[in-house]
Design a protein that fits this description.
Elements lengths: L1 H23 L16 E4 L2 E5 L12 H14 L7 H5 L2 H14 L3 E5 L2 H12 L5 E5 L4 H10 L2 E5 L4 H10 L5 E6 L11 H11 L1 E6 L14 H5 L6 E6 L9 E5 L1 H10 L1 H4 L6 H15 L2 H17 L6 E2 L6 E7 L1 H12 L3 E2 L2 E2 L9 E6 L6 H17 L3
Parallel strand pairs: 2-12, 4-5, 4-6, 6-7, 7-8
Antiparallel strand pairs: 1-2, 3-9, 8-9, 10-11, 11-14, 13-14
Helix pairs in contact: 2-12, 4-12, 5-6, 5-10, 7-8, 13-15
Length: 397
């Protein structure tokens, strides 16, 4: 009994030591208490900020039509799903959303998951097994890597956007089935993957392509259909995932592909089979969101204008804005300390931009991740650029 208590206390002590060390290393993460809707101005920790933190790229998270859709649907369907999809939890609203999403992105079928993380670990681990191989970009989101590990397939990573290295790996692979799993738009760099090159490799080496379009859906392509539309790509070898809590403004994710793929996932994707789905009212709200996305060309044009406004107004000598044509605009400042100090400096001016540090990004590339939204005005973005320009002059980092 005493030994067991000592072991427990030893674990707690080790946890505290690790937390203390993270604080020393400038890696301790903290939550902000939000007391407002997501918008260009938010209230966090009892203070108002101009926010460049949200992935709400089209400014839909507080849209009155979506609020009304959720209220109406909750009145009809209640606030909970009650059971897994395969018991009694698959509501008409869930089904209608899946059909609408599939039609919107031009795929035969779609399947809705509660989160993007659950979608990626569920899909990759269901489709791949011990005799297979998964090939991932080194800058992929963590959930793609976790899905590959859970699948127990041979897991190989290649240098960021390096098509030549990927081809060598595919050529050497003896796996029964091969899956290239990549972000379409990289969440911390904002750049777009060379998806046409990957599809060419799939056709050449009998592989399949799994695209995580979390940061492209709603923003890129015709009427916001996403990265595949951006490149005008279509193939039975492609499976796509997109999250619904970013540009769509609500929550959840969906996977789209051939009908046989979706039918198989309904049977085998553990994060789908063994989970209670999100409330039906969320799906009804998302159906309304898809309509707003499709009609949102003006929002996307304004967002593109804001991206160019930021680039045109930043006048930097030491810090580097990475090349990105998307709403994710990373400003690399170097050390953990420098990124946190810059973020805090802006915060003192009521501007909120998050500091991103390892392991989310490589060592010595700590950065501010500037997220632009169609909800921002041109003046909002100019104010941010001027504050960063001034910070580079006055901060001794």
């Amino acid at each position: 009994m005493l030994m067991a208590l000592q072991n427990e206390l030893s674990l707690l002590s080790d946890l505290q030591k690790e937390l203390d060390q993270r604080k020393v290393d400038g890696l301790l993460r903290q939550r902000r208490l939000l007391d407002s809707p997501q918008a260009e101005y938010i209230v966090a920790n009892d203070k108002q900020y101009l926010s460049f933190c949200s992935n709400d790229y089209l400014g839909l998270a507080n849209h009155p039509k979506l609020i009304a859709a959720m209220q109406n649907a909750a009145g009809e369907s209640g606030v909970g799903s009650g059971a897994s999809n395969l018991i009694t939890g698959h509501h008409r609203y869930h089904d209608e959303l899946e059909k609408k999403l599939a039609k919107f992105v031009g795929m035969p079928a779609a399947l809705v998951f509660s989160t993007g993380y659950m979608a990626n670990i569920g899909v990759v681990s269901a489709l791949m097994g011990r005799d297979d191989a998964v090939f991932c970009d080194k800058l992929n989101h963590a959930c793609l890597n976790d899905g590959a590990i859970l699948s127990r397939a041979n897991f190989q990573r290649f240098a960021h956007n390096d098509v030549a290295v990927l081809e060598k790996l595919l050529k050497a692979s003896k796996a029964k089935h091969k899956l290239i799993a990549v972000d379409a738009v990289f969440s911390m760099d904002g750049d777009i993957a060379p998806i046409p090159d990957y599809l060419r490799l799939c056709e050449q080496y009998d592989a399949y392509l799994y695209i995580d379009d979390a940061h492209g859906f709603g923003v890129l392509g015709e009427h916001g259909k996403g990265s595949l539309s951006h490149f005008k790509l279509k193939s039975p070898r492609i499976i796509m995932m997109a999250t619904l809590g970013k540009a769509a403004g609500v929550a959840g994710a969906f996977v789209a592909g051939e009908q046989v793929v979706i039918d198989y996932l309904i049977q085998k994707a553990r994060s789908y089979v063994y989970s209670t789905p999100a409330p039906p009212a969320l799906s009804a709200t998302l159906a309304a969101s898809v309509s707003l996305i499709e009609q949102g060309d003006d929002l996307r044009e304004h967002l593109r204008h804001l991206i160019q406004t930021l680039k045109g107004n930043l006048k930097l000598k030491k810090w580097q804005l990475m090349p990105s044509e998307t709403a994710v605009q990373p400003l690399v400042v170097g050390s953990n300390y420098a990124a946190v100090a810059l973020s805090e400096h802006l915060q003192n001016q009521s501007i909120l931009v998050p500091a991103i540090r390892p392991p989310t990004v490589p060592v010595n590339t700590a950065r501010l991740r500037i997220s632009l939204s169609a909800a921002h005005s041109e003046q909002d973005v100019i104010k941010l650029a001027q504050a960063i320009n001034e910070a580079e002059k006055v901060l001794k980092l």
